[in-house]
TrEMBL record:
Family to which this protein belongs: Belongs to the RINT1 family.
InterPro entries membership: EXOC6PINT-1/Sec15/Tip20_C_dom2, RINT1_Tip20
Protein name: RAD50-interacting protein 1
Example of a GO cellular component annotation carried by this entry: Dsl1/NZR complex
Phylogenetic lineage: Eukaryota, Metazoa, Chordata, Craniata, Vertebrata
Source organism superkingdom: Eukaryota
Source organism of the structure: Balaenoptera physalus (Fin whale)
Pfam families: RINT1_TIP1
PANTHER family per record: RAD50-INTERACTING PROTEIN 1, RAD50-INTERACTING PROTEIN 1 RINT-1
GO biological process: endoplasmic reticulum to Golgi vesicle-mediated transport; regulation of ER to Golgi vesicle-mediated transport; retrograde vesicle-mediated transport, Golgi to endoplasmic reticulum
Length: 659
């Protein structure tokens, strides 16, 4: 047997003949060994594969088992869902059966709603057409042709949008409306082309030019001839009167064409008034001759003039009150000019009234002038109502800038109307009104007497209403400040007047600390309103306030307390050295406006001897002249004897007489 280490080696002692067989055997053995090794490797590989197969085979049942388990669970879930689906399907069917009547009713209601919506849409179209139509009418009434045409364009655009609609009646209504307003606008524009805007002013200017150009010729060439033959005819005036007849004829023809066009008619009136003014002032045309004012005084033309005048005046009033500068004075930076602190709207309004006066003052008859006067009075009343409305919006801020500006406006208008009442022109109208009222018996004998004696004026009704409004507004301001002062005086009312040190016990008298809030509140409000109100209004304001303060301090502070010598002296110092001087800027002797307080301080501060003597006199001569003389002697003129006796009883510094 060969050792492992000898494997493949030939023995050294073998003969040569054995070498071939030996080699053969060795080769065979080697092949066997190699085959055995290969076989062993294959066996190993097969064993590994088998091991793997066995391993996989052992895991497959587990996976199959898990998959089966999952399938079972899925089946259970599916069965559960199927049961739920069956139950839900049954519920839905039941609900549908129950809701079927509702569905049918709801469907009917939806159909009705859709029908109503169609009707509503139809009505909206009609409403929109009518609204545009109304707008066109309003624009034409105010002669705003441009806006009327623009609105008609909008209406035509709606007509185009409706072309695809099946609503034939709506289409017909829309088309008829467009055609109607188109014709109206076309006719209006045609009339304006026939009567150009500048034709009322061309021939009037031409007549004035003819008169001016021929004046020298008539005076130097024609007049001497007339004078030579002894004629009293004035060549220049006759020439002017002849031309005036042409003007009157032309106006009589033109006015009916312009009567209902506000802008053209107003322009015509303006030009006629300017023509008349220059004719009389420059060319000396007598007012007794026929003139254009007679044409304007004819009933139809005159009533239209009044209407247009009112319309444009109201428009200007709207504009002036809505202006940003309505309540600001034009002269606020010029102290001398701005004494009345007139807001811009009030000054503009009175200028408007003055212009109206200038326009109608040359009318030939007093009755026509009186109609214009009534128009002016209506405008004043309308403006007063507008001021009242704005004032009510500012009531909570009765000390504010706008409220004070409204008050200044009311005062200014009232003052100007009172001045106008003394004007010769309005005095003549007053006399004319007196004659008219007497004929118509529209006034009582007392009122007629007042008008005849000039005790009243044509503006009295308006002035009285404005004065009442002014008084109400001032009263509201006074009450506001008075409430603030009373609130500030609460501590002063509770001052310990019985226990204050006497004047001899103090080095220097000083203001009571509890009086400081009262005096500061009073001072601040006086300064504020002095700046915001005109002088005359502020004077009324502070005098009304002082009257209330005088009574308040007298009744609520003095009569409600008792005073020792020090308390009486302190009260006197507070009043005479601090309260009264607050008003020294507005009058020379402010203490005369605090008569109750001033005289009460006199009584409380009488020396003991004088007080005893006065008390004895009052008790012994009650209601007799000697009592009045005694009161006057110590400076008491306002307070009654009983009031003085009460004040004497408020003194606590009486000597102990043993009684």
């Amino acid at each position: 047997m060969l050792l492992a280490g000898d494997f493949g080696k030939a023995p050294a002692t073998r003969c040569c003949s054995e070498n071939g067989d030996q080699r053969k055997n060795i080769k065979e053995k080697s092949d066997i060994n190699i085959a055995a090794l290969v076989g062993n490797e294959r066996v190993c590989e097969e064993q590994t594969c088998i091991l793997k197969v066995l391993t996989v085979s052992s895991e497959i049942p587990k996976r199959i088992q898990s998959a089966l388990k999952n399938a079972e669970e899925s089946k259970q879930f599916l069965n559960h869902f199927l049961e739920q689906e069956s139950h839900l399907f049954s519920s839905i069917n039941s609900h549908l059966l129950t809701a079927q009547p509702w569905i049918e009713d709801l469907g009917a209601m939806i159909n009705q709603i859709e029908e109503i919506e169609r009707h509503l849409a139809y009505l909206k179209w009609i409403s929109q057409i009518e609204e545009l139509s109304d707008n066109i009418q309003q624009y034409l009434m105010t002669n705003n042709v441009l806006e009327a045409a623009s609105t008609l364009v909008s209406m035509a655009e709606l007509d185009i949008k409706l072309q695809e609609s099946s609503c034939t009646h709506l289409l017909g209504f829309m088309r008829a409306t467009v055609k109607f307003w188109h014709k109206i606008l076309k006719d209006k524009l045609t009339r304006q082309e026939i009567y150009p805007y500048f034709m009322p002013e061309w021939y009037l200017a031409q007549v004035l030019m003819w008169i001016g150009n021929h004046t020298q010729f008539l005076d130097e060439k024609i007049q001497p001839i007339l004078d030579k033959v002894g004629s009293s005819v004035n060549a220049r005036l006759e020439f002017s009167r002849g031309l005036m007849m042409l003007v009157l004829e032309k106006l009589a023809a033109d006015i009916p064409c312009l009567l209902y066009d506000d802008s053209l008619f107003c322009h015509l009136v303006d030009e006629v008034l300017l023509f008349e003014r220059e004719l009389h002032s420059v060319h000396g045309y007598p007012s007794t001759f026929a003139n254009c004012m007679h044409i304007l005084s004819e009933e139809t033309c005159f009533q239209r003039w009044l209407t247009v005048e009112r319309k444009f005046a109201l428009q200007k009033m709207d504009s002036m009150l809505s202006s940003e500068a309505a309540w600001i004075s034009q002269y606020k930076d010029i102290t001398d000019v701005d004494e009345m602190k007139v807001p811009d709207c009030a000054e503009t309004f009175m200028t408007l009234l003055l212009v109206i006066t200038d326009r109608y003052k040359n009318l030939p008859t007093a009755s026509r002038k009186l109609q214009f006067l009534e128009l002016q009075k209506d405008l004043v009343d309308d403006f007063r109502i507008r001021l009242t409305q704005v004032m009510k919006e500012e009531t909570r801020a009765s000390l504010g800038f706008r409220y004070c500006a409204i008050l200044n406006a009311v005062n200014y208008i009232s003052t100007v109307l009172a001045d106008w009442a003394d004007n010769v022109f309005f005095l003549q109208l007053q006399q004319a009104a007196l004659e008219v009222f007497a004929e118509n018996n529209t006034l009582s004998k007392l009122q007629l007497g007042q008008l005849a004696s000039m005790e009243s004026s044509v503006f009295d009704d308006m002035i009285n209403l404005l004065e009442r409004l002014k008084h109400d507004m001032l009263t509201r301001q006074v009450d506001h400040v008075f409430r603030e002062v009373k609130d500030a005086a609460k501590l002063y009312k509770k001052e310990r007047w019985l226990s204050l040190p006497s004047q001899s016990e103090q080095a220097v008298m000083s203001l009571s600390s509890s009086a400081c809030p009262l005096l500061l509140a009073l001072r601040d409000r006086l300064l504020q309103l002095e700046q915001q109100l005109c002088f005359s209004l502020f004077k009324i304001f502070w005098q009304m306030l002082v009257e209330k303060l005088d009574i308040y301090i007298y009744q609520e502070i003095i009569l409600a307390n008792h005073f020792n010598e020090g308390g009486a002296a302190q009260l006197h110092f507070d009043m005479t050295r601090n309260l009264f001087p607050l008003f020294s800027h507005y009058c020379k002797r402010p203490e005369n406006y605090f008569k109750h307080v001033k005289e009460a301080c006199i009584v409380l501060n009488l020396n003991t001897g004088s007080a005893l003597l006065l008390r004895d006199v009052l008790q012994s001569t009650s209601g007799q002249p000697p009592a009045t003389a005694a009161l006057n002697e110590v400076g008491i003129y306002k307070l009654a004897q009983q009031d003085v006796e009460i004040l004497l009883n408020l003194r606590t510094n009486w000597p102990n007489t043993g009684k």
